[in-house]
Fold this protein.
Amino acid sequence: MSGYQKVLIAIDLSDESTRVVARGRAIAEGSNAEVHLIHVIEPLSFAYGGDIPMDFSGIQDEIHQQATAQLQRFAQSNNIDAHHQHIVLGKPEVEIHTLAEEQGIDLVVVGSHGRHGFALLLGSTANGVLHGAKCDVLAVRVGQ
Ligand code: AMP
C-alpha cells in the first residue's frame, strides 16, 4: 500500500497541538507527504450574535490576528510552508472537511480527548471530523 500524499493537521492552538502536529508530521515524513496546517476561528456571532446587540468586528479582528500569529509559530517551528497554513472562519468540522476536499487531502490528523460519559454524548471536534470525512482520519490521543 502506498503512503499518504497530503496530510492536513487541525489544531486548536492549545498546548496539546504540539503533540498533534508532531504525530502528523511523523506520518507525513514517513511517506514524504505534503503537510498542511489548519486552525478554524469560530465567529463570535455564532455564540452571541442573536442574543447580544453588539458589533463584534473589532474583537473578531483581534482574535484573527492573534490566531494567525500563533499558527505561524507552530508552522515555522515545524517547517510548514506559508502557503500550507490555513486560517478559516467557521465551524471547525465543516471547514476542515471543506479544506480537505479542496486540497485533495488523504489524511486528516486531529487531537482526541477520549471523552466518556456525558461529554461523549455531547460530541467533540474529533467525532465531527470523523463523521462525514471522505478520507482517512487519525485521532491523536491528547489530555488525560
Ligand atoms: P475538541 O474535540 O474540541 O476538544 O478538539 C479536539 C481536536 O479537534 C483538537 O486537538 C484539534 O485537532 C481539533 N480542533 C478543535 N478545535 C479546532 C479549531 N478551532 N480549529 C482546528 N482544529 C480544531
